[in-house]
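#structure-requests
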Amino acid sequence: MITIINYGLGNLGSVQNMLKRIGTPCIITSDIKEIENAEKILLPGVGAFDSAVQKIDELNLRSILVHKAKVDKIPFLGICLGMQLLTRGSEEGVLNGLDLVPAKTIKFKFDETSDLKIPHMGWNFVKVNTPSKLTEGFTPEHRFYFVHSYKVVCDNNNNSILRTGYGSDFDAAIQNENVYGTQFHPEKSHKYGMQLLTNFSKI
C-alpha cells in the first residue's frame, strides 16, 4: 500500500491512476493517523516551493513525514516539487525544506545568448549515475517527462541516481537511503514511469 500525501498541491489523480494501472494499492490522505500507519509514502507536488511548505506546515505534516522517513525508514518518494521539498531549501523561496536528502534546489540560469527556455518542459533521456533499486532494469532508452524551472543539486554525487541535461547535466533522480526523488513526472511518462513506480512498489 502506497500512501499519497494530499497537502493541496499535486497531480493526485494522475498518480493514483498510474498506480492502479500497475496494480499497486494506494490511498490519498492528509490524515496524520493514516500517515503514521503508512508502509510507503509518495509526496507529489506542482507549484511554488514556499506555498507547498506552508501547506505542509499548516496541516502539521512536517514532523510525521520526517519521522516516517528518518526513524521508521519506510520507502519515501518525492515527485517534481515533491523531490525539491526533500532538500534543505530552494532559491524559489525562503522557507526550509524537509531536509531528507543533502541537497539544495536552484533556478535554471542561462545567458542571454541561449535559446533554452524556462521552464524546462518535455521528454528527456536519463542515464544511471548511481545504481538504485528505483532504477533497476533501466536502459539508455528510458526517457521521462519534465516540467520545472528549478533543479536539485546534491551535495554528494552518490545521492544522484539519474542524470539528464538541459543546458548542462543535472540530477534527475536522487536517493538518500530509503528516501527517493524524481524531478520528472513518472505518472506522465507512460511505460517508463510505470516501470519506475513498479520498482518503488517492490522496495
